[in-house]
Amino acid sequence: MSSVNLGKRIKELRSKYKITQDKLSKKADIPFSTLAKIEAGYTPNPSMETLIKIADAFGVGVDGLLGRK
Q1: What residue numbers bound the domain in which 15 lies?
Q2: Alpha-carbon gap, residue 18 to 12, rounded angstroms
Q3: What CA–CA distance (Å, rounded) separates 35 from 24?
Q4: Domain tally, the chain
């Protein structure tokens, strides 16, 4: 998955769960700037640890975060 698609997917999930970037970054325990860069497509390969933290914050698996079934 490209970084742009990942960023778009995270935005979609944030919209679905009605959560701001700030709240998600705190819930995932990652810096706000890291989340913003991922969503904007500026971080092409976020670490697996970061992906897991974001997925956990949404209550989905990494596959769910990536839009895979």
Answers
A1: 3-65
A2: 10
A3: 8
A4: 1
